[in-house]
Amino acid sequence: MGNILNLNNKKGWIELITGCMFAGKTEEFIKRLRRYQYANQNIIVFKPSIDDRYGEKEIFSHSRMNIEAIPVSSSTELKKIFNERNTTKKIDVLGIDEVQFLDDDIVILLEEFASNGVIIVASGLDKDFKNNPFKNVDKLLVTAEYVDKLTSICSKCGGNGTRTQRIINGVPASANSPLIDIAANEKYESRCRHCFEEPK
Ligand SMILES: [Zn+2]
């Protein structure tokens, strides 16, 4: 994303970073939060506790960039922690990674925070492996002030990767395989529109 040109002197908005897997969303997410941090903004970062790929209290990108993050299991828990911290020292920026894995109420909550002067940096997948819109991200695509849709490189043809192909035992996963299964030993590939195989 380029620099946000904020012509409004009132603070509080939503920035969404989205796209398929391997598009560099997490790097962009961490980079942007660090940028606010360097500007002495008080930041707080959350991640759904379902996502514990690398460590409990941090978010890592594929290139091993990292930032501290508080794992939460629900939007209610996130709100509670935010309010406690906000009482001690006013929070300027809230980061939330993998926003598609939280419950639906997160969208309303982020809207509320942004309207009350908090800068929201949200990151999440726009589509699941069946190419259907992912919850929360679908709504944030509409309500966010700033949207960056990142793309990857198609693993088949080198074209513009916009979709995530889930591979189980060397073949595209069937449509009825469970949507969220982070721990499973399976593989994901980025694919373009043309090389993506619709799960059956
Ligand atoms: Zn392709």
TrEMBL record:
It is found in: Cytoplasm. One of its GO terms (biological process) is thymidine metabolic process. GO terms for molecular function: ATP binding; thymidine kinase activity; zinc ion binding. One of its GO terms (cellular component) is cytosol. InterPro entries: P-loop_NTPase, Thymidine_kinase, Thymidine_kinase_CS. The active site is at residue 98. Substrate binds at residue 188. Its EC number is 2.7.1.21. Zn(2+) binds at residues 154, 157, 192, 195. Pfam families: TK. ATP binds at residues 19-26, 97-100. It comes from the Bacteria. It is an enzyme of class 2 (transferase). It catalyses: thymidine + ATP = dTMP + ADP + H(+). Keywords: ATP-binding, Cytoplasm, DNA synthesis, Kinase, Metal-binding, Nucleotide-binding, Transferase, Zinc. NCBIfam families: PRK04296.1-1. Belongs to the thymidine kinase family. Homotetramer. This is Thymidine kinase. It comes from Spiroplasma corruscae.
